[in-house]
Amino acid sequence: MARRIEVSHAIIVEAPIDRCFMYFTPAGEELWVDGWQPAYVEPPDGRTEAGMVFTTGAGAELTIWMLVDFDPVRHRSRYARCTLGSRTGFVEVQCAARDAGTTEVRVAYTLTALSADGEAALAAFEGERYAAMIDGWARELAARREVLAQAVLR
User: Fold this and answer.
1) On the chain, which terminus has fewer CB atoms closer than 10 Å, C or N?
2) Rounded to an integer, what is the distance from CA 134 to the centroid of its chain?
3) pLDDT digits (tens, 9 = 90+) for 72-113
C-alpha cells in the first residue's frame, strides 16, 4: 500500500501580503532559496500563471511541477509535483495578512510515495523535521528582506 503524508506549517514574514505572496512563486523563490533553479518549460520566461510548468533537480530527483491554481487576490497557490519513480503530490501556499506589513504563510504538502525511495523521502517531511524546514524558510526570508523588498517579482 502506498504511503501518504499530509503536513502543514505556518511562518510569519515581515512583508505586505501582496509582495510576500510573490516570494512563494518559482521565480520569487530564486531570490531566497539557495540552490533553487527551476527550468521553465511553459511559459519559458518563468512568468507566474496558472498552468505554468517547470522542473527542478536532476537524475533521480528530477521533479516536474505544474502550477494548478494561482489566485493573487486570495493569495493562494497550489502546485502538483512528481518526482518520477519516487513521490507525487501537491504543495499549497496560503497567505493571510496579520497587519499592513506582516503576513502569515501556511505551506502544506500532501505527498504519496511511489516506491521505497519515495517512502524514505517522505520521512524527511514528517513531524518536527517539516516544521524545522519551513521555519528555516522564515530565517532565509528575514536574512534577505532588504533584497526582496527591492526585487522585481514575476
Assistant:
1) N
2) 10
3) 999 999 999 999 999 999 999 999 999 999 999 999 999 999
Closest CA to 42 of 59, 29, 24, 26: 26
pLDDT 10s digits, 2-36:
799 999 999 999 999 999 999 999 999 999 999 99
Strand (E) or helix (H) holding 73: none
What is the domain-level CATH number for residue 33?
A: 3.30.530.20
Displacement of CA 147 from its chain's centroid (Å): 19
Distances (CA, A) of 80 to 19, 28, 65, 67, 150: 23, 18, 6, 6, 30
Full domain range(s) for residue 48: 4-150
pTM of the model: 0.94
Q: Count of domains in the chain?
A: 1
pLDDT surpasses 70 at 1:
no
Nearest to 20 by CA among 66, 81, 72, 67: 72
Count the Cβ atoms, other than its own, within 10 Å of residue 22: 23
Question: Which amino acid type is present at position 115?
Answer: S
Q: Are 69 and 76 in contact (CB under 8 A)?
A: yes
